[in-house]
Amino acid sequence: MPRAIEVRGLYYRYEGMDGDVIVDVNLEVERGEFVLLTGASGCGKTTLCRCFNGLIPHFYGGDLRGEICVAGFNVRETPIHKMALKVGFIFQNPDSQLFSLTVERDVAFGLENLGMDREEIKRRVDWALEVVRMKEYRHSAPYELSGGQKQRIAIASVLAMNPEVIVLDEPTAYLDPKTALRIFQLLDELNQRLGLTVVLVEHRLDLASRYASRLMVMSRGRIVLDGDPTTLFHHRLEGYGVTTPRLIRFFRELEREGYIVEKLPLTTEEASAVLRRIIS
Amino acid sequence: MIEVLDVYYTYPNGFTALKGVSLTIDRGECIAIMGENGAGKTTLIKHFNGLLKPTKGAVSVDGSNTMDLSVAQLSRKVGLVFQNPDHQFFSETVEDEIAFALKNFGFQEDEIKRRVDQVLERMGLIHYRQSSPFNLSGGEKKRLAIASVVVFNPDYLVLDEPTIGQDYLQKREIIEIIRSFLKEGKTAVIVTHDLEFVVDLRPRIILMSQGRIILDDTADKALSNLKLLDEASLLPPQITELAYRLFNPPGLEGVLDEKDLMKIIKPLLTRRVKQQ
Predict the structure, then answer these.
(1) Rounded to an integer, what is the distance from CA A67 to the centroid of its chain?
(2) Half-sphere exposure for B32 (CA within 13 Å, toward CB)
(3) CB-CB under 8 Å, B38 with A178
(4) Is the pLDDT of residue B273 over 50?
(5) Which of the four, A49, A105, A277, B66, has the lowest number of CB atoms within 10 Å?
(6) How much is the pLDDT for A96?
(7) Using alpha carbons only, how large is chain A's radius of gyration in Å?
């Protein structure tokens, strides 16, 4: 089986702009990974995501060089509507993704476009709404829903297509912390239960990093750090415009007192377990 | 001083967003308004510059009822930065966008230029002065929106979710702008979900839920009130949550950042077990 994502020597420049915004990106993501992608504003993370589903180069044009394959398809040679079957894309603002009068219609939209038969559509819509726990809202209008609920519907409409990879570009920016955490928990579930490959662009590392199998930091178009979160947090990420979770900052303070913790905790549960061993 | 007296607000569609809100904001204060999506935070701050007038109750700014003043009169005093900056832009270039209010308020040409240059530099927008506001990234738009208000130096700076889409360094810059604003004796009111931002700034905190104020207290006290935070769909700061897991004494207050926790932990550290 092909890898979820395979990128070699990738460069990209937007039409009419000077300079590459993606610079020599090399990347292999196996199926079932949960990749958390972060970095300063303007570092190229959104641009890279647009390459994953073919918006680049098919919609944005510009100059794309190098190799990129997602779910086994060469992105450059595969039209967007075909990529959309393999790669689901979730935007920062769900309003840019929902447009129907009922939740059900929105989730069914992509499937109807494929000319799928009614029974199969119904089955998939039921299933997708079940997975995101929004079944009771199937007849509601998307605009009546809260931000978190809208984002769940956006995720459901992507899931209904049965993609192999789901790419989310700061999906929780407008959500309150508790609602954001619930979205991350849902992604974790999709990743664990369905084996879906997740690429999540986020600034909220304090809430998201516990679910990620891999953290990638971009800077000026390049991937500058790539590894499991507990290891990467030993690096000073602030210089790349990344907010280091407070827990990690606390363990840095502790390091100054001579207590070096190799496996940095990502949750307060883990942190309290570590601390209990070293305090009286 | 901004005084909000038992304010109710019902939107034309019949939705009542504020249900009896009372609040006094003194000159020089720094206040964060927090709470779940739809709690009424944005509706409340739109009353400060007269964009919305109460359905019932009253709002006054420096002693004048907002009913008696136009938005134009109020906005010289109360600078409001919207959550979605697209709603605020209309000029063709970044530079003109920032200069707009200054021209409107009748500033001299050379003073306008001086101020625009200064704020462009400060907000990291100097290279975009000739760009269209709509071509900027989300984070840049947000900083432009802040710049176009900070530039006319209002007495009250009201920011709706200023840190959305901002990275670590840009957040630091926004904190610096708020701090220097406060240093001049001015007032800052910030609607935010960003707990770590609030932990750095330690403002007075107003927690809202379903159109009401459910808590009005210092950051130390408010952010240590895990029950009410939960009601307002907020999570406690990571360090506060950790402190509760470790000690859980009633009355553990103001342990919000790594330095606060270190003060408590340091005397308890044993040399017996060292983590490798």
Answers:
(1) 21
(2) 27
(3) no
(4) no
(5) A277
(6) 79
(7) 20
Residue A19 backbone class (left: φ over 0; alpha: ψ -120 to 50; beta: rest)? left
For residue A187, give both structure tokens: 């992604």
CB B265 within 8 A of CB A259: no
C-alpha dist (Å) from residue B144 to B108, B119, B173: 22, 9, 13
Q: Is B166 on the interface with A (CB under 8 A)?
A: yes
- Residue corresponding to tokens 């007269």: B50
Tokens found for residue B63: 């002693």
Rounded-to-integer distance, Cα A54 and Cα A203, Å: 24
Contacts of A268 in chain B (CB under 8 A): 238, 241-242, 245
Which tokens belong to B11?
């939107």
How far is residue B185 CA from its own chain's centroid? 16
Contact A195, A32 (CB under 8 A): yes
CB contact under 8 A, A177 and B261: no
Cα distance between residue A191 and residue B225, in whole Å: 34
DSSP labels, B36-58: STTSSHHHHHHTTTTSS--SEEE
Give the whole-angstrom CA distance, residue B94 versus residue B273: 58
Residue B171 to residues A36, A203, A252, B175, B264, Cα–Cα distance (Å): 20, 11, 21, 6, 28
Residue B234 neighbours by CB distance under 10 Å: 24
Backbone dihedral angles phi then psi of residue A232, each to the nearest 5 degrees? -65, -30
Instruction: Determine the Cα–Cα distance for residues A52 and A56; give it in Å rounded to an integer.
Output: 8
Predicted confidence at residue B275, as pLDDT, reads 46
Task: Encode pLDDT of B54-97 as tens digits.
Answer: 999 999 999 999 999 998 889 889 999 988 777 778 889 999 99
The closest of B263, B207, B271 to B233, measured between CA atoms, is B207
Alpha helices in chain B (DSSP H): 41-46, 71-77, 94-104, 109-122, 138-150, 168-183, 195-201, 219-222, 226-231, 238-246, 258-265
- DSSP bridge pairs for B204: B31
Shortest Cα distance, chain B CAs vs residue A234, angstroms:
14
Instruction: Give the one of A174, A261, A269 whose C-beta lies nearest to B164's C-beta.
Output: A174
Q: How many other CB atoms sit within 10 Å of the CB of residue B70? A: 9
**pTM for the full model?**
0.88
Q: E strands along A51-177, which residues?
A: 63-70, 73-74, 87-90, 165-169
Most B CBs within 10 Å, among A268, A269, A277, to test the B interface: A268
Question: Which residue from B168, B238, B268 is facing A280, i.e. has the nearest CB?
Answer: B268
- Check whether B272 has a pLDDT greater than 60: no
DSSP, collapsed to helix, strand or coil, labels residue A127 as helix
- Tell me how close the Cα of B173 comes to any Cα of chain A, in angstroms: 12
Q: Are strands A34-39 and A197-201 parallel, antiparallel or unpaired?
A: parallel
pLDDT tens digit sequence for A209-264:
999 999 999 999 999 999 999 999 999 998 898 999 999 999 998 988 888 888 89
